[in-house]
Amino acid sequence: MRGRLHPALAARRRAVSAERRLRRRTVLLGGLCVLAGLAATWWVLTGPILAVRSVEVADYDGPNRSALESTLEQVAPRGTILAPPREDLRTVARHFPDVEDVVIERSFPLGVRVRVIEALPAAVAVPRPEGEPMAVTLDGRALGPPAPGADPLPRVWTDSELSVGRRLEGDALLALRFATRTGPEVSGRLRSLRVEDGRLLGKLARGPRLRLGDTRRLPAKARSLTAVLNHLPPEDERAATYLDVSVPEVPALGGLAPTQDSTDA
User: Fold this and answer.
1) For 179-227, what is each residue's pLDDT tens digit?
2) Of 85, 101, 118, at which residue does a domain stop?
3) Nearest alpha-carbon partner for 123 in 58, 60, 189, 76
4) Are residues 231 and 148 in the same domain?
5) Which of 132, 175, 190, 192 is the right S-S partner for 156, CB 3.0 to 4.6 Å?
6) Do residues 199 and 253 share a domain?
């Protein structure tokens, strides 16, 4: 009969169709297996099996150690040993005023080691008129009363009461920025730094009053003050009534008796 397939050809077509269906099922099952494997791997890597379970705090013996450890232990399980929650740990640790930063290290099998970089005092802020002096960091964060017997630090006046963790603002922060830009041999001698009527004033321990001009060009004025004091004879420094670096390129020393050469001129 016309149009009728040969039995062998019909069988071949059925075999080819069945083979295609089998191949499609195999590909589909293979894809599902891959997805299931990826999901299982993801669950293992990010799930509770590898979750961080212990926190060790190192290089820190401050008064807030117990509170810091407790806080870090609450945050650590948000990550795993393969992917610790570094930014979360850093964020909560830096809420403690005496913590500048932390370094997160893995501690196998299921822990992390948090190395603390402590905040260092850069100056002493003295609230006016009779507030309690507070050590402050480079960015003005109050750490607490200055440690007895510590190296001399510049002293900055502030009109605001300070508590631990609070930051200096406004004019007091400008005075702090000036103090921390002077050389180490100068900064520890700075006293009573404050802004009055838009002008920065202060005094040197065992030395003259300071006239620092407006609050512009503070780095240049700090360098000028350091350079002058590094080359000023001690007897002239003791005799001077003021040292003016309002114009940093032309510092001036006041109160000295005129020299013989200037009298003859």
Assistant:
1) 999 988 899 999 999 999 999 999 999 899 999 999 999 999 999 999 9
2) 118
3) 189
4) yes
5) 175
6) yes
